[in-house]
Amino acid sequence: MHWRISSLVKAFVTPQTSLGDLDAASAATLIAAAADIAIVVDAAGMILDLAFHSADLAAELPNADGWVGRNLVETVAADSRAKTEQLLRHAGTEAAARWRHINHVNPQGASVPVLYSAAPASEDGRVVAFGRDLRAVSALQQRLVNAQQSLDRDYARLREVEMRYRLLFQSSTDSVLVVDAARNRVAEVNPAASEMLDAPGDHLIGKALLDLFTAESAPAIQAHLAAVRAGGRADNAPALLADGKTAVSLAAALFRQDAATLFLVRLARQQPRAAASPAESVRARLLAVVDHGPDAFVLADHDGTVLAANAAFLDMAQLASEDQARGESLDRWLGQSALDLHVLISNVRSRGAIRFFATSVRGENGATAQVEVSAVAVAANGGQPNFGFAIRNVGPRLRTESRIGRDLPRSVEQLTELIGRVALKDLVREATDVIERLCIEAALELTGDNRASAAEMLGLSRQSLYVKLRRYGLGDLDNDGHD
Q: What sections of 9-121 are H helices per DSSP?
């Protein structure tokens, strides 16, 4: 192994001593172990022999068994033929130190990447090509390329979104400020806001938000921002700009960007309100009476979601503020079950209004109250009606009433009206009493008010019939002329 050995980057110093008498079989074993694939070719590039050290690579190239006797250039892809010729041509020279990426083609037509280096094997021009399997590296590179392309696409979408945001922000006719929520300082301002505040945008950036308004407006603005932080939304806050003349309505929304919390603040000029007419003034007082009245009142949308509630309802439901009720379904508090509200709304839809619907209200802290509900449906702008519920606590009254003195229903219609107001077991008892009374009245009518015949017809003793007549208040028991 002394031929052209000086062409290697770093050769063995004493190969004759260190390797000893290396026979062909041992040399073949060493060559096969040195690479995933080893190919021996003659001076013309014809494959004389080959060996696989990687079983995976051998399985990927099952057609390699037929390579012997073919030119190495014929076994590679078209784009790798020139590199294969250079590999064989420069074997044993200084250029042989370069590894070349060469693609073979498997029977399915897929490329199998192999990294080759070549070394001379004998004086007659035979060359050994050592190959390393590059499939894992190639797959990793492909994933890296795919990831990079995905990042590029995401970055392009982000740039498009940012461009649209900038265009909308700058061209919006609404006055909009972006405020740093941690420091309450202006981070961005659009031209409409700059015009309203009568200051260039670059002068407003970095300025404290409260400095843009009068000192009297600060508490309302701070309360509004605190409510938005806590609940995500709040009613608009009235404010007066620092010039002391321009009244605005301030509305903020919270959002996050680049791990920072920001407020999107919209400012709208408040138009001066015309003097209220006498009718409007009376209606305003009526609303104030409802809001502060002793009976609970709730305004709900078409599916029972609370839109507004007065103080009496908040006390009954054990709520601290109206915001806790707004947006929630009324059946969270009203009704012994969710079915009560469904029945109530169905009746209001069909009748337009109902009165004295008996149910209960459950408080947030576990308190319950027996109530009577009167409800009415009113048309809304969206086409679906809204519902107003007047809720009166009748618990104290029920505790003082005696069930003995209560009038029994006299007909099926009266019994039907009790559905939803009386428990089922009481309804069954009431229905039994109604049927019994109707049967006694029919028997008396058929017998001409002859109680003895009526008792016989009903299968009762005369004494039992008299007890039931007294119970239901039928006939003149002091005059028993028909007996």
A: 15-19, 24-33, 55-60, 81-89
**236, 251 Cβ separation under 8 angstroms:** yes
Residue whose entry in the numeric block shows the structure tokens 């003349």: 245
In this structure, are residues 220 and 237 in contact, taking their beta carbons and an 8 Å threshold?
yes
Question: pTM of the full predicted structure?
Answer: 0.36
Q: Specify the 3-state DSSP secondary structure of 122.
A: coil
Among residues 182, 207, 183, 181, the alpha carbon closest in space to that of 193 is found at: 207
Judge residue 326's burial from the number of C-beta atoms within 10 Å of its C-beta, 0-12 exposed, 13-18 middle, 19 or more buried. middle
pLDDT at position 470: 86
The one-letter code for the residue type at 164 is: R
Other CB atoms within 10 Å distance of the CB of residue 61: 19
Whole-number pLDDT of residue 405: 41
**Tally of residues, the chain:** 483
- Report the largest interatomic distance among the alpha carbons of the chain, rounded to a whole angstrom: 150
Residue 70: pLDDT above 80? yes
CA–CA gap between residue 285 and residue 289 (Å, rounded): 6
Q: Which residue, among 418, 291, 315, 419, has the nearest Cα to 365 in the 3D structure?
A: 315
Tokens of 406: 């209560």
DSSP 76: B
pLDDT tens-digit readout, 86-121: 888 887 665 555 788 889 888 888 888 988 888 887
Judge contact between 179 and 189, C-beta under 8 A: no
Are 306 and 330 in contact by the 8 Å Cβ rule? The answer is yes
Per-residue pLDDT reduced to its tens digit, 237-264: 899 998 888 899 999 998 888 778 899 9
Domains of the chain from N-terminus onward: 5-133 (3.30.450.20), 172-269 (3.30.450.20), 278-401 (3.30.450.20), 412-472 (1.10.10)
